[in-house]
Amino acid sequence: DNPHILSRKQKRSSEEIYNQACQFIPGGVSRNTLFHEPYPHYISHASGCYVTDIEGVQRLDFANNMAALIHGHAHPKIVDAVIEQIRKGTAYTLATEAEVLHAQLLCDRAPGFEKIRFVNSGTEAVMAVIKASRAYTGRAKIAKAEGAYHGTYDYAEVSQNANPTNWGDINHPNSVPLANGTPQGALNDVIVYPYNDIERTIAILDEHADEIACVLVDPVPHRVGLMPGKPEFIEAIYKWTRKNGALLAFDEVVTFRVSYAGAQQNYTVKPDLTALGKIIGGGFPVGAFAGRSDIMKVLDPRESKLLFPHSGTFSANPVSMTAGRVAMELFDEKAVLKLNALTQKAIVQIREAIQIADVPVSITGAGSMFRLHLKSKAPTTYREAYQNQEAKVLVNEMLDYLFYEEKIMMINTLACMFSTAMTQKEIDILSQAFLNMFKRFKP
Ligand code: PMP
């Protein structure tokens, strides 16, 4: 008789479920994004690149669970492998071969991945990269890009919400706290640099030359503006780290999809450590961090002095490992090139739509992802890409239009993350929808 227990026979609307959710979950949601007013749409099922909500509305999905689904939904080979694993159990305290096979697959892909460890999320992966860097160097501070998103670890989220009222002088961007009550110590230990600005970044790093454990770099940082890091910029940071005894750490949680070996494949210099997540879990919770053997030794329990003790109840669980391995096997070099080519084709078509509608819209991105900006010149820095409140309102209206009228889902910055389930048909739908949207909203 408990009214809170869902009756399976009772068919309810998203609105009803949301009202119940609000009683138990703050704001009714567990993730603050992808929320379309007036309530979230609860999903019934999904297949390939289409998602169907419980009202029966089918939508074309360019969000792909925040960029995590490289093959779209319910790929039969992943589903079969996972079901087979689940029948045998899901987590055992002791290790499984699934973990070792996935480790080898990923290490074989990227030359800099000499050793790897698995965790359960991208947040954890970035956290572990920071802690491994500290353990290795014996230093406490990290440097990160203004506005960059690296998950929900205190240090990694500093400056994530930097805006004109608090971001400070560009020569010394503020260590802006994201959450109320962030320890001052955490803020003191995070040095913020302006992305793609070589001179200012090096000058800022120089001020802390012997204190920085690692410089954290996302090679195509979504919240900064989804613009690729300029090769000269990445190389300058690399050189600075060599000179000053710091590590170069890449956050490739999103960007590993960009090339066969991640976005790092596109640079002449290699990071010492890399955080991974999203697509390497094949649709299941995952994270990993990989890098130089001598650094990863800080995690080795056989060492007489264990510098970074690390564990996790569900780390390397065989379900995520199996799904991830099958997903990445399917995402081989040929599949990566094909998906990137399809995405570039979509960009060409969207550029045509921008021209036809004659709107000031530009596109940034890399590989199988891109983001639209409501300005005619593509931004290269965070402050250039920053959207004021007025622009944000317009973007939200556009997202709602796409969601309700065009039946298309995407990430809430007007970013699209492609999957191998997509074909020419889907990019035609997308570019037509953008054309309709540009004509209607005229940014
Ligand atoms: N780093 C980047 C660049 C991300 O985009 C994200 C997630 N969007 C994370 C880290 C955190 O990953 P997770 O949500 O799996 O904790």
Q: Can you walk through the features of this model?
A:
- The chain has 443 residues and is of the alpha/beta class.
- The protein folds into two domains: 14-74 and 332-441, Aspartate Aminotransferase, domain 1; 77-330, 3-Layer(aba) Sandwich (Aspartate Aminotransferase, domain 2).
- The protein has helices at residues 14-24, 64-67, 76-87, 97-109, 122-137, 184-188, 198-206, 231-244, 293-296, 318-330, 333-357, 382-385, 389-404, 424-441, and strands at residues 43-47, 50-53, 58-61, 115-119, 141-145, 190-193, 212-217, 247-251, 273-277, 287-291, 362-366, 369-373, 408-409, 415-417.
- The strands form three sheets. The chain has a seven-stranded mixed β-sheet, with helices on both faces.
- Strand 11 and strand 12 form a beta hairpin.
- Helix 4 (97-109) packs parallel to helix 10 and helix 7 runs parallel beside helix 8.
- The longest helix is centred in the last third of the chain and has 25 residues, at 333-357.
- It is globular.
- 4'-deoxy-4'-aminopyridoxal-5'-phosphate (PMP) is lined by residues 66, 121-123, 126, 149-151, 218, 222, 251, 253-254, 277, 287.
